[in-house]
Design a protein that fits this description.
By secondary structure, the chain is mostly helical. Helix content is about 60%, strand content about 5%.
């Protein structure tokens, strides 16, 4: 078994592993989304389902789902939405362990209804990021928050139930 793991690790170049399986980048992108939520002035908790919604809009270019004149449906991959939804719990667990977020909920509610908000420590971390990429991502999230309302109708549309 150890031999198989060694062969697998060597067969995929590190650059490809980082490109397609970069959990640290996913952590930071999620943290930046929570920061963008905090810029709206509301100090409320955001449900996991809403976090997955906006993350997918921006990072998987699913904003096109809401464009009136879209013609490239074959280029949109709704599956990315579902893949991210399956990994969001692990991402939030890491952010919580770093004390970057607060989590509100208990075992009696559905996972996607758990509330999350940024802590002061998480906000300070994002504010110290110096990359133009991350600043552009904050703008992209803010624009999507302003232009596309999170609602059950829009969530259904994003999931492909149009």
């Amino acid at each position: 078994m150890k031999l198989n793991n060694n062969l697998t690790d060597k067969s995929t170049p590190l650059s490809i592993q980082l490109l397609f399986n970069n959990s640290k980048l996913d952590l930071i992108k999620t943290l930046i989304l929570l920061f963008s939520f905090s810029l709206t002035g509301a100090k409320k908790y955001r449900k996991l389902q809403e976090i997955v919604f906006y993350y997918s809009l921006v990072n998987f270019n699913l904003i096109a789902v809401f464009n009136e004149n879209r013609v490239d449906d074959h280029l949109l991959s709704i599956n990315q939405y579902y893949r991210f939804q399956s990994s969001i719990n692990q991402i939030l667990l890491h952010l919580w362990q770093l004390e970057f977020i607060e989590v509100k909920g208990d075992l009696s509610i559905k996972t996607l209804d758990i509330g999350v908000r940024l802590t002061v420590k998480g906000k300070l971390f994002v504010e110290e990021l110096k990359s133009d990429y991350f600043h552009a991502l904050i703008n992209d999230y803010s624009n999507s928050l302003d232009s596309i309302k999170y609602s059950s109708e829009n969530l259904k549309k994003l999931k492909g139930g149009d």
